[in-house]
Amino acid sequence: MIGVILIGFAAGMLAGLLGIGGGALFVPALALIVGLSQVDAQATSLLAIVPVALVGAWRQHRYGNLRLGDGIRIGVFAIPAALVGVVIVNAIPQRITEFLFAALLVYIAWTLARGALQELRGGDGRTLQHDDDDDTTRPA
Amino acid sequence: MPRSRLLQLGAVGVAAGFFSGLFGVGGGVVVVPLLILWFGYGEREAAGTSLVAILVAAVFAVTLQAIYGNVHVDDGLLIGIPAVGGVLAGTALQQRLSGAIIRLLFSVLLVVTAVLLVVRA
Question: With an 8 Å Cβ cutoff, is B8 touching chain A?
């Protein structure tokens, strides 16, 4: 039970830091520690995500970091697409698509990290936006 | 809002929903980098706005799952209440980090997600 509470707190930290829901930690904790089935763990994880996302979004709003309208539009479009994904996952060989998606994630990670590393070295790592939120890494 | 921007936001939502339905990864893994790289969002804005999108989709999905009787409310609260404490700490900490550090942390998250996708049975 202490383990579940600690993992819950860690998942919330990640949600606040990175803007993810926390399900990546909720689901394995609920399945492996609490002992729920995979389906029930995923369903119950969604319940935990709701207050986390609500409170996280509210805090970011208070910090001035929220574009509410954009977020709502993205979420609304995601719903039918998720249903399509669930249907397709039951109809195609899973392993190939998993490898392809993993490769895509690594490529995106590299793209994000490359700009960030340039910025930390003192250059402007951004090509698509103004450096508007960071006054600590200007070149001397 | 111009029609083209609405279509772009719709594409982000479709990609996030589709991949989360397909692979079980959270939508944030898709939404945050797209908002940064495609829309030029700052890292903090991308994270905050992603949480709104997740909230909308999760409310819908958990309602559906509850109708099917798959939601364990007590276990959800057991892990969700400490997570609310975590998100308060995480958002506060995030305001003190530079955008580049947040992006690097997110890159690590993406690589870990990719590895887990490949190694899981």
Answer: no
In whole angstroms, give the CA distance from residue A46 to residue B73: 10
Question: How do the domains of chain A map onto residue ranges?
Answer: 2-91, 92-129
Note whether A109 contacts B70, CB cutoff 8 Å.
no
pLDDT value of position A131: 47
Whether A112 sits inside 8 A of B110 (CB atoms) is yes
Round to whole Å and give the CA distance between B98 and A17. 11
Lookup result for tokens 């990864």: B25
Give the type of residue at A53: A
User: What's the complex ipTM?
Assistant: 0.92
Domain boundaries, chain B: 3-119
Measured between CA atoms, how close is B120 to chain A, in angstroms? Answer: 10
Give me the residues of chain A with pLDDT under 50, please.
127, 129-132, 134-138, 140
Surface of A (80-119) touching B: CB under 8 A: 80-89, 97-99, 101-103, 105-106, 108-113, 115-117, 119
Q: Which residues of B fall within a CB distance of 8 Å from A127?
A: none
